[in-house]
Amino acid sequence: MSALSVKHLIGIKYLTIDDIELIFKTTDSFKEVINRPIKKVPTLRDTTVVNLFFENSTRTRISFELAEKRLSADIVNFSASSSSVSKGETLIDTVNNILAMKVDMVVMRHPSPGAPMFLARHINASIINAGDGTHEHPTQALLDAYSIREKLGTVKGKKVCIIGDIKHSRVALSNIYCLQKLGAEVMLVGPPTLMPTYIEALGVKVEYNLKKALEWCDVANVLRIQLERQDIKYFPSLREYALYFGINKSLLDSLKKEIVIMHPGPINRGVEISSDVADSEHSIILNQVENGVAVRMATLFLLSGRKE
Amino acid sequence: MQPRIILSSEKFTFTIERLCRQLIEVHGDFSDSIIIGVQPRGILLANRIHIRLAELLKREIKYGIIDPTFYRDDFRTSDKQLTPAITEIDFQIECKKIILIDDVLFSGRTIRAAMDALLDFGRPEKVELLVMVDRRFKRQLPIHPDYIGKSIDSISSEKVKVEWKEKEGFDRIWIIPKSEIE
Fold it and tell me: I want to staple A115 with a disulfide (CB 3.0 to 4.6 A). Which of A92, A110, B123, B160 is the partner?
């Protein structure tokens, strides 16, 4: 397999196992590049990428921007708050106006699930979904799986639990698809109010007891409570959430084995994870961030170089 | 026309031996010299030369691998998608003499890309080029090898394939006519 089967990276759901393996193999090369004295290659010097962020982002946006810069692409940054979107312009009009200025690729974050898919039907440029509402965040899932592969040698056969606000998490859904395609077992853990109904239909285990889940898993991917997406109260207090679903050192010490701790960021220290765990040797949170740049370079490279 | 062997297994070994002796003649004990194989097929020759040089000199020779994919000029124009391979240069190349090693020199574009990739790691004192097969009169860039296993005259539509014991079971070089490639 030497080319992606898709023109856009809308979601992990649409990727084949070969696609994911190709992205990982390409990421290996870019990981070496970003650790060189000169962390830049000229491959996409003929490409212009627009980063369309209709929703706030720090890490993903910086990660994409660095990935694009290290591939020598030209970059246009766009944020909805300071644009004509606030004057009532539609998504297609906004994007078509930008594409008329000869932009080749679009990286988009949007609060509405399905927005990148909608756009893909109407424009010719390749689109990379940098998170669409509560739907998917494919590059995050790819970098998470890549980080597990890097730490444990393989993803196949590993037991991964995803802990926290599953209901509002695009990271959780993309991770489920990605990990299952790569042969891992997935367990979801969180308060029942933050667990989507019928989620078992995706072939995942559901557990409400954090200790039991941690005893079962090799890797714990801890999610942030997304208060900005919660229109009602899903649990009594953050303090109570931390008590039942927060990971702390004494809980990890009580396990009979060592597990790998991951977090897609931003971390709410003291809520879903305590500082001593986030900064411990079990944590690969900063490796995830480093791998994020390499994974995004790989997806930009593979989508840009794809032949019709 | 049928594919034909232009270098047999027996002569193949002699050629590599000669290339190693030529390298020692120029680079002495290799204290300031490094050999670097060009991905993907150049590393097979570089590996062989690395092992033989270490035997002849009775010392470890610095050896690296470089992948020119990200520096190629056919990223857009190639028929198939380019996919990268691993680069491994775990040492300083500043002020060193570098010998780039590839299996076949044709247009010179791969070597141009490999040199650009190499210069991102530092400023070597000198860069030389060693190839197993030099397809003469086919260069599209002003690049010339310093050490040549075998020079051949061929037409552009023909393909030259270097086979390796480690990969294909035999050490030999083929010239394959266009009709056989298709």
Answer: A110
Whose CA is closest to B139, among B164, B156, B161? Answer: B156
Domain regions of chain B by residue span: 33-71+85-156
CATH number of B33-71+85-156, picked from 1.20.810.10, 3.40.50.2020, 3.40.30.10, 3.30.70.270: 3.40.50.2020
Q: What's the ipTM?
A: 0.85
A144 and A89 assigned to the same domain: no
Q: Using an 8 Å Cβ cutoff, are B110 and B68 in contact?
A: yes
Percentage of chain B beyond pLDDT 90 is: 75
Per-residue pLDDT reduced to its tens digit, B112-124: 999 999 999 999 9
Instruction: From A67, A68, A49, select the one nearest A107 (Cα to Cα).
Output: A49
- Give the residue carrying structure tokens 């991102």: B120
Q: Please indicate, yes or no, if residue A166 is contained in any of the structural domains.
A: yes
Residue A138 burial by Cβ neighbours in a 10 Å radius (0-12, 13-18, 19+): buried
Q: Which residues in chain B touch residue A21, judged by CB atoms under 8 angstroms apart? A: none
Q: What is the C-alpha separation between A281 and A301, in angstroms, rounded?
A: 32
How many structural domains comprise chain A? 2
Residue with structure tokens 């080319």?
A3
One domain for residues A165 and A107: no
Best interface-test mutation with B: which of A5, A301, A302, A304 has the largest number of B CBs within 10 A? A301
Domain membership of residue A173 as a residue range: 138-288
3-state secondary structure of A52: strand
The token pair at B71 is 């520096």
B77 to chain A, any CB pair closer than 8 A? The answer is: no
Q: DSSP H helical segments within A107-155, as ranges? A: 115-120, 138-152
As a whole number of angstroms, the distance between CA B134 and CA B154 comes to 10
A53 and A121 both lie in a single domain: yes
